[in-house]
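User: I'm preparing a small set of examples for a lab meeting where we compare how different chains pack in three dimensions. I only have the primary sequence for this one, and I'd like the structure in token form so I can line it up with the others. Please keep the answer compact; I'll paste it straight into my notes.
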Amino acid sequence: QVFCLPWCHTAMAFSGIYSKYIELCGAIIRPPRDRYDAKSDLGPSIFCVSNKTYKRTDLTLRNPHQKRIRCSHFEPSTMERATRRLPAVIYLHGNSSSRLEALPVLSPLLQRGVTVFAFDFAGSGLSDGEHVSLGYFEREDVEAAVDYLANSGTVSTIGLWGRSMGAVTALMYVARGHHSISGIVCDSPFADLQVLSKEFAESYLQIPVPKLMVSAALEVIRSTILQRANFDILDLAPIKIVSECTVPVMFVAAHDDKFIDPHHTKQLYEAYGGPKTLEMVEGDHNSMRLGTLQARVAAFLVSELISSDQPRRWYSTAP
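Assistant: Understood. Below is the structure token output for the 319-residue chain.
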């Protein structure tokens, strides 16, 4: 018969939890990559929406770290273009995703006279990069896209539409005081990555864990991610900075989201310093957003893009 001292049980338990947390680190910074064929999966470069002709231009940008960012700009064909400068929305995809995620939002935006710019974040899709950072470094990819559009001579105003990681990226970007953005849509962002990591752990381990062990294991996550991906999870807390944001925003969250609980979006909505609205929808984190919501989002963005040179309309609505 083998006897184990109480500290042995603790050590063995922590060892098992430690290995699970290392797996969780990988899930955070190196989730499955969305690999696709740009030529076939992005569709034809010339296409029609409601009997009007549009074109897709594929290009490559370099972010401040000189990583190649694969992009696509969807806009009216030369014959259909009403004016040289048109408003543009940059779509920011979620984790384990790519610019393909922007395809369903093309129709509601293009039909309203707004061009769509989509790209794969560094570490995602076909872009360079080994890791993702859930918004920390991704905001620099947004900076590269904004600079490109602002200097293109064909864009009048710019909005951001982000989902999950992309929504956090939008908040992190505008919090830096970028006044070139007229409006943002944030679908299912997290408020604090450390809090989300604790929630992930509880769901991932599926066993009750003493708070002391949780704190120790979270420090393992923090140090591992800092070493492997060069960012501190404590710096990914939009809830601490959104009170300083003034860009009009529409928040979106799904009632049955078990991945990023809706309380994250609600907290961000309450703390946000600028004009804001909140849309609660049916479904979960990865549910396809219905056309009615896409239409409301598109209408919100169009309103802000068109009125960006006029006095801001301060409003706050929630269901």
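A couple of notes for your slides: Residues 6-29 form the longest helix (24 residues). The two ends are 63 Å apart (CA to CA).

User: Perfect, thanks.
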